[in-house]
Amino acid sequence: MKIYTVLLIIVFSLTTNTFPQTEIYKDRLAQVKDLVNSTELIMVWRQKPSTSEEYQFHQRIYDLDMTLPGLDERLVPYPVQIDTSIVENNMAVATGNFLNGSFKHLVAAWQGPEGVTVSVPEIEFETLSWTNESQLSVPGGARIDLATGNFFGDGQEEFVLAFNGTDTTIHLQVFSFNPGSLVPIMRGTINDEHFEWSKGSYDIITGDFNTDGHDDIALLFVKPLDGNNLVPLRKNLQCR
């Protein structure tokens, strides 16, 4: 018997398209490698095979095909991607235009045995699956989060990885990409906020908050103050 836990579903694109009643919708993904203007979603979860005691990280992309008649048929599942070991229900996924092209890529992160595993796959548009991916591992692991943004104002998106480190601080690490390469390169890190996951929570969001053409990172967190009292805090960060 297979044991599995589904954690989250993230929609790839929030683009809304309106078509006349007489026009038949044709999925652009059937023509080009385009994860921006088509409608896809990705589900990530951990699952334990019946023959193993070790959980593994799973990913699957679903494509919405409006040419099919029934609602169940329109949501088309593509192959499950089984990756390395995962411990705890601790994972995140995000999408971004990492190569400044006409389509998006995805980045996933999960808590592995040796720390946080980060993966950026090369998605094949015919199958919405992959055989090649760039991976890296960083120490830490509790409460993983991901967000993407154009932090350097060059039109190319980067991603920020957030996690609670072994030193009980919130770590924010920004990664970028060289042209034509999906190998993430760490551009900077900061961990100046003490945080214990068992006593609070946090989240990150990105956006151009001061209209300077660069996306910023907002860290929002709740932490104990004066005993058992919890206080919400916010910090805005800029990449330069």
Mean pLDDT level:
78
Report strand %: over 45%
Overall geometry comes to globular
What is the helix/strand order?
EEEHEEEEEEEEEEEEE
Number of domains: 1
Q: Indicate the percent of residues in helices.
A: under 10%
* Number of distinct helices: 1
Going by helix content, strand content and strand pairing, the class is mainly beta
The largest sheet, given as strand count, sense and whether it forms a barrel, is: 5 strands, antiparallel
Model description:
- The protein has 240 residues and is mainly β.
- The chain has one domain.
- 2% of the residues lie in helices and 48% in strands.
- It is built from one helix and 16 strands.
- The strands form four sheets. Strands 1, 2, 3, 4 and 5 form a five-stranded antiparallel β-sheet that branches. It has a four-stranded antiparallel β-sheet with strand order 6-7-8-9, with no helix packed on it. A four-stranded antiparallel β-sheet has the order 10-11-12-13, with no helix packed on it.
- β10 and β11 form a beta hairpin.
- The longest helix is centred in the first third of the chain and has 4 residues.
- The radius of gyration is 19 Å and the shape is globular.
- It starts with a strand and ends with a strand.
- The relative contact order is 0.12.
